Amino acid sequence: MKIVVLAGGLSPERDVSLTSGALISNALIENGHDVMLLDLYFGENNKEIKPVYRNNKSDFRYSYAVSEHEPDLEKIKSSVKNDYGMIGNGVIEFCKQADMVFLALHGAAGENGQLQALFDLYGIKYTGSGYAGSLLAMDKDLSKRIMRDNGILTADWQYVHVKAGYDADKIKYPCVVKPCSCGSSVGVALVENESQLNSALECAKVYEDFVIIEDKVEGREFSVGVLNGKTLPPIEIRPINGFYDYKNKYQAGLTEEICPADITDEISNILQKSALDVHNVLRLGFYSRVDFILDEGNNAYCLEANTLPGMTPTSLLPQEAAAVGITYEQLCNLIATGE
What we know:
The protein is α+β, with helices and mostly antiparallel strands. Helices cover 33% and strands 20% of the residues. The protein is globular, with a radius of gyration of 19 Å.
């Protein structure tokens, strides 16, 4: 197959996306496909990642690494002129010519349904969820409302515009501030008092104006992958210091991840059932990853669903797949081909 792996873009999760994209591309090359790694924002103007097809007849392999901090998006925007705004020159044409577009994007247009809707209009085939599921999962307020309406546990929250303020009487400390439509813990802050809350809101509005202020649930953190209608073994996430923020997620040695998690079959079943319920009510596609906090009473509170989870070999979903004997190369091929 001719496969375009679409990554990068203008999201704070750009570096995570490019890292996933490079490794997905290498895995698909090993599976015998002709693969082009393409940057959504730079398109044909990318000087570092040339938009050409690669295959296993050569020794060339892609390489990219996540830095400790989010990228400078304003600097990136000023470095190239695009005729199509968020989409780089040539991107649509390259994608139309491919047999499949493997979406390795994170955040913004790549996960919120906008790109999926555009591709549907062009008849471009792509991996992951459709535009409706992508929109519902990306918007934390919408997804939590749908979960609650369907009897799925999720922590209480306020949905606020940072300039309009919040209802101080409803805040319970500690709480968690999250930009409404970012992933990879970008802009997320754990706060203990009103002063910290106000500072966190100031930081969050760098990314977007709408945030959720969520009650903090004390407990253990887990994630459960869904692949082709079936759940994978839960993985437990244990940051060595602090919480599972951007730095702890992507810098080596800062988080312990246990898969399969050291839990009873009963607890595993609770997490897996809830993950599948979330996946279904949000209308997600071939694969997803759903994150939870398990409290002392073994109640699984859903944090969020990820329609395009991280796809480095050490990311959570690939670790869960490996626990049932699916290699990284097999996982990428399965997502790309459905076989």
